[in-house]
Write a structure and sequence with these properties.
The protein folds into two domains: 8-105, no CATH class; 107-212, Immunoglobulin-like (Sandwich). The protein is 37% helix and 23% strand. It has helices spanning 11-28, 36-89, 96-102, and strands at 123-128, 131-136, 143-150, 157-162, 167-169, 180-190, 193-195, 202-206.
Length: 212
């Protein structure tokens, strides 16, 4: 019968385990052939691991704060843009030709106001310790539909819709000890209607552990 690994699975649990191991090795190591110098290496390893975990926690906090600031600034930026465009379009000298020059005239497909039949989202995928971040370009559309398949899956699964970039896939690996390949794609939507073409597929080989 297979036994569980004596090492715990998460970073936090491993840190606690390592602290106990290092302390006990200092007192009983000689009994099992471990010298004091060899035992001391585990104290150093534990301290380095603790330092790295603290750094990761700080960077996660900084990242979340940066995303919040970016989103707040983006809301203000978009309001400024739309308010200004609204004034421009209501000015007596405004023409469609001027609007085209400014990039404020949306392309249209018959029956789908503001939609483009050839619209195709562009995005990049970034692996973080506990998630995959998808940064996408909104253009004139309301949102994107996000799909993914991973591991041995042969069909795409809907992950959801996103109105503000980035989209974050918080799922951990099916087996957190084994890397897996995820394939993402997106499609624009306007007023809950899917628009245009599916994006090019983006492939990510990742190790995501939501408990790390």
């Amino acid at each position: 019968m297979a036994r569980n690994d004596y090492l715990p699975g998460t970073d936090g649990e491993q840190l606690i385990w390592l602290g106990n191991f290092a302390r006990k090795l200092n007192s009983i190591g000689a009994t099992v052939g471990v010298t004091p110098e060899q035992a001391e290496q585990f104290e150093i390893v534990r301290a380095n691991f603790q330092s790295n975990l603290d750094t990761v926690a700080t960077k996660k906090s900084d990242y979340r704060s940066a995303v919040t600031r970016k989103d707040e600034q983006k809301v203000a930026m978009l309001k400024l843009i739309r308010d200004t465009v609204g004034r421009v379009k209501h000015h007596e000298n405004y023409t469609t030709a001027l609007g085209d020059e400014l990039g404020i005239v949306a392309p249209e497909t018959p029956g789908i106001p503001g939609g483009g039949a050839d619209a195709k989202p562009e995005f990049v995928a970034t692996q973080l310790a506990d998630r995959i971040r998808l940064d996408w370009i909104k253009s004139i559309y309301d949102s994107v539909i996000v799909q993914c398949k991973r591991g041995s899956e042969t069909t795409f699964t809907l992950l959801g819709a996103d109105m503000i970039s980035p989209f974050e896939d918080l799922r951990q690996n099916i087996n957190v000890a084994v890397p897996e390949v995820r394939i993402y794609r997106m499609r624009y939507a306007m007023k809950d209607i899917e628009i245009g073409q599916w994006s090019d597929e983006v492939r990510v080989a990742c190790m995501v552990d939501a408990s790390a």
